[in-house]
């Protein structure tokens, strides 16, 4: 009965030629707008930039003749560029493991039943969702040598006035950046690891407990293998974010003192928007893209993010 | 009662865990608390040595100044830019995701290309985009920013929504097709209601990404459509005179995010892990 009516309905609603054509092509029609925008904003500038990187355009000189690989050759002589890559690597290499470790410890704290856990998690997530510019600004106020609470707290524990110029003193700028970064993103790791830990097979854990296995053994043999995929995803996402770190440093040190905390993103920004070295900036952009593409492809191949 | 009685050891462990949880939470919330308190302080209290942890009274002059000077327009601009761009990205991205999930359009390669678009660092494209925007007179306008945020959120929306759509039972759609609905009706009447919660969560995240962006806004705005993070950096000046403004603006700019994310807490894990972890 139902079938008969529905077949009838289909008969009556035979689509027009245009309608049928629209339906036949539908898979492509509904992909098109999104791909168009992605190409327009994602690919078009890259092609444009690639062309420019083989020219010699600066603020004063609009010379559009091609100079081959001159800009790229210059990259290798640019010590400030390699220094900025080094700064980026340092921040990533220190902050990423710290975030992972702290996130893991936090997750351990909340993994077992704890009434009120929801509320704790909701509050702990706050740093991760606020704008990185706000995070940087907040810590700038916190670190202030005279009006900020960090110095006050340190003085209290040291028993004598502690005056640290966190965002100016070369010895403390990196700790300052990393503290801010770790504060903002450890909760991110925490959230992902908490979810991963909740999915660890409980029966295996119980069996291990009955066998009297030590915690470290359980961690190595059961827990870590089970949460490894999540750790990989979390590290990939955070790693890519750390390599492009810009906002927090802009708010905290603006790359200073001098260019001590200048990361690759800040350096590219300076070359592009202060020096207006159009062609050279394009060349740097491609260096960054090449480096990231290599790293990401290697990581992705290993873990197969795609389902 | 016997049932409610826990062994002393367990009670102690639970107590210790509460203590640990409270300490950790206080540590992580302290900077937020500090910012919040500054926004309520008078200049005398802000620049007091040693720093005061609690203002004598809650007063709103820091907020009042922002409204009086019209600086809150930045919040409004952010709402427009983030809201409209998320809306467009959600509609176009979900349609694209449906095609990818159900027809396998473009195969695995297209899907990988789309997610790789999200991996490109903004700094690598911001400069060429800036030059193009200058060329077409799109700097400092709503259209340019909305187009840009739409493009940068599309890969995320497509990737996430593809995951949600794949979870919808195929039989539902097939029976709807047999019942004489065409594809558009199937998408609208069958798939859409099934993925509504995923759709909501994804919209919140796209909104947050656009809302929090600083680099693009810094480069592509001048005076007309300054968004909230850029407005915030305008108070940074050489002297730290504007702490009250920084704090008040930060609080105003964080409230919408906080509300949005609180509502979406259930989807937070899946959202921030690009769908890799189902919380």
Trace the largest sheet of chain A across and list its strands.
Answer: 1-2
CATH superfamily of the largest domain in chain B: MetI-like
Report the end-to-end length of chain A measured between terminal Cα atoms: 41 Å
How many separate structural domains of chain A? 1
The separation of the N and C termini of chain B measures 36 Å
Characterization of this structure:
- The complex is a heterodimer of chains A (307) and B (279).
- Chain A is mainly α and 307 residues long.
- Chain A has a single domain (73-303), classed as Orthogonal Bundle (MetI-like fold), CATH 1.10.3720.
- Chain A has helices at 2-12, 17-24, 26-29, 32-53, 70-77, 79-111, 117-129, 132-143, 149-158, 173-198, 202-210, 215-243, 247-252, 264-274, 278-303, and strands at residues 56-57, 62-63.
- In chain A, strands 1-2 form a two-stranded antiparallel sheet.
- In chain A, a hairpin with a 4-residue loop joins strand 1 (56-57) and strand 2 (62-63).
- Chain B is mainly alpha-helical and 279 residues long.
- Chain B has two domains: 8-59, no CATH class; 68-272, MetI-like (MetI-like fold), CATH 1.10.3720.10.
- In chain B, helix 4 (73-102) runs parallel beside helix 7 and helix 5 (107-119) packs across helix 7 (142-166).
- The longest helix of chain B has 33 residues, at 8-40.
- Chains A and B meet through helix 1, helix 3, helix 4, helix 6 and helix 7 of A and helix 1, helix 4, helix 5, helix 6 and helix 7 of B.
How do the strands and helices of this protein lay out in sequence?
The complex is a heterodimer of chains A (307) and B (279).
Chain A: H1 2-12, H2 17-24, H3 26-29, H4 32-53, E1 56-57, E2 62-63, H5 70-77, H6 79-111, H7 117-129, H8 132-143, H9 149-158, H10 173-198, H11 202-210, H12 215-243, H13 247-252, H14 264-274, H15 278-303
Antiparallel strand pairs in A: 1-2
Helix pairs in contact in A: 4-15, 5-15, 6-10, 6-12, 6-14, 7-10, 8-10, 10-12, 12-15, 14-15
Chain B: H1 8-40, H2 43-46, H3 61-68, H4 73-102, H5 107-119, H6 122-135, H7 142-166, H8 170-178, H9 183-194, H10 196-212, H11 215-220, H12 228-233, H13 243-263, H14 268-272
